[in-house]
């Protein structure tokens, strides 16, 4: 099931109805992938270099950071290094945000009766990341952004997909990055929300529902293990195989069953990327650039091709 969570809108953004673009409607969909989602800045760098501005941006989990930045950019020309600057800022904000371990919460999971286990228990305290989000989002509201943005979260109680199209930008990002057991869930409009990647790691369906003609779908697969030094290595390999297959299966399903042209952009990330590996952000951006550059000629042809209805007229 899917829920569109409509929060009270700001007076300025309540009645705005953007003019339909003359060209085919292009949507950029950024999937889940934790820090690997920094590769999205490389994808956007290439799009900006070629003057391609999405008409809609959809994101979940770590992809929400790049999505929120791009939605703030608007349709105007950007400096050549804009995406690199944004990626560096993202890395500074991420650095150390996951270092504050909540040992009591960890112990409460092991000894629930003794320490009164709470469903909000998580390994990481979220004070630093909440503070970083406030600075990143600048008190902006989702509905007031120059480019339409949809953030996908998961209702932790019902498992429903929740689409955030209004409300505070910081709330939307915080909800969709609430990785279960890593960060506490986020309470919003009476719902307990967690990472959007839990229910929909590549939310193509949202862009399709919004009438996109061309969808740039950016997914972030994990690198596979080549050697196994412990049981945890086996667990990581199993999880990686499951998530990577889910990504590909989801893309394949929507690509076959809907009429929108869908480009799959999966940056070739050969390294294991942990939560704290911010030193790899430049490498990830480079991987995003390489992946998008390969598809730019085809994307430009798609954008230049009129809709079937327009051709008929």
Automatic annotation (TrEMBL):
<keyword id="KW-0443">Lipid metabolism</keyword>
<feature type="short sequence motif" description="DGA/G">
    <location>
        <begin position="195"/>
        <end position="197"/>
    </location>
</feature>
<dbReference type="InterPro" id="IPR050301">
    <property type="entry name" value="NTE"/>
</dbReference>
<dbReference type="InterPro" id="IPR002641">
    <property type="entry name" value="PNPLA_dom"/>
</dbReference>
<keyword id="KW-0378">Hydrolase</keyword>
<protein>
    <submittedName>
        <fullName>Patatin-like phospholipase family protein</fullName>
    </submittedName>
</protein>
<feature type="active site" description="Nucleophile">
    <location>
        <position position="61"/>
    </location>
</feature>
<dbReference type="InterPro" id="IPR016035">
    <property type="entry name" value="Acyl_Trfase/lysoPLipase"/>
</dbReference>
<feature type="domain" description="PNPLA">
    <location>
        <begin position="28"/>
        <end position="208"/>
    </location>
</feature>
<keyword id="KW-0442">Lipid degradation</keyword>
<feature type="active site" description="Proton acceptor">
    <location>
        <position position="195"/>
    </location>
</feature>
<dbReference type="Pfam" id="PF01734">
    <property type="entry name" value="Patatin"/>
</dbReference>
């Amino acid at each position: 099931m899917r829920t569109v969570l409509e929060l009270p809108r700001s007076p300025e953004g309540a009645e705005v109805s953007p003019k339909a673009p003359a060209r085919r409607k292009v949507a950029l969909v950024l999937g889940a992938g934790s820090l690997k989602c920094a590769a999205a800045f490389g994808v956007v760098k290439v799009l900006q270099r070629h003057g391609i501005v999405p008409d809609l941006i959809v994101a979940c989990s770590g992809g929400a950071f790049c999505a929120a930045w791009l939605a703030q950019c608007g349709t105007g020309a950007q400096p050549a290094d804009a995406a690199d600057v944004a990626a560096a800022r993202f890395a500074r904000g991420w650095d150390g945000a996951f270092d504050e371990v909540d040992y009591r919460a960890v112990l409460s999971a092991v000894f629930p009766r003794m320490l009164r286990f709470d469903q909000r228990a998580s390994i990481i305290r979220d004070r630093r990341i909440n503070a970083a989000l406030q600075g990143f989002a600048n008190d902006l509201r989702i509905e007031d952004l120059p480019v339409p943005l949809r953030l996908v979260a998961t209702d932790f109680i019902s498992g429903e997909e929740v689409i955030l199209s209004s409300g505070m930008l910081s709330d939307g990002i915080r909800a969709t990055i609430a990785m279960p057991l890593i960060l506490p869930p986020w309470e919003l409009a009476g719902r307990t929300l967690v990472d959007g990647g839990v229910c929909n790691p590549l939310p193509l369906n949202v862009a399709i529902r919004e009438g996109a003609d061309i969808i740039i779908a950016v997914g972030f697969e994990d690198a596979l293990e080549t050697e196994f030094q412990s049981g945890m290595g086996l667990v990581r390999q199993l999880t990686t195989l499951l998530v990577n297959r889910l990504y590909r299966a989801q893309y394949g399903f929507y690509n076959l069953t809907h009429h929108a042209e869908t480009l799959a952009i999966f940056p070739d990330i050969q390294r294991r990327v942990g939560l704290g590996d911010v030193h790899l952000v430049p490498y990830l951006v480079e991987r995003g650039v390489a992946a998008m550059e390969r598809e730019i000629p085809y994307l430009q042809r798609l954008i230049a091709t009129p809709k079937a209805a327009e051709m008929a007229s």
